[in-house]
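It is worth pausing here to work through a concrete case rather than discussing structure prediction in the abstract. The textbook approach is simple: state the sequence, then state the predicted structure, then interpret. We follow exactly that order.
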Amino acid sequence: MSVDCGESVKFAERATLGSYKGSEWGERIFCTTCGSSLLWQTQDGKNQHVSIQCFEDPSQFDLKIELFIDRKPSNYALAGTRKTMTEAEVYAMFAPKEN
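Step two, the predicted structure:
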């Protein structure tokens, strides 16, 4: 679960961060000391989504959308109703447009 932060996230100059490029356009930023996933972003940094576990009170956030709904295990479901997007829909939203 994450919070959409646009492109507002900045890290301290000496932060111990690593990056994993999971696609041609997206990457995960993590702590190289403890391995915690901190955020997912487009590689241009314009779409940053910070893990709610980075916040002192993660319960302050409402779940508004479920992504990759077609990839979730069939043995669980989150309570409530909200917008859902499939893998193809997510890729179409974030992947660079081809010329």
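Step three, interpretation. The radius of gyration is 15 Å. The longest helix spans residues 87-94.
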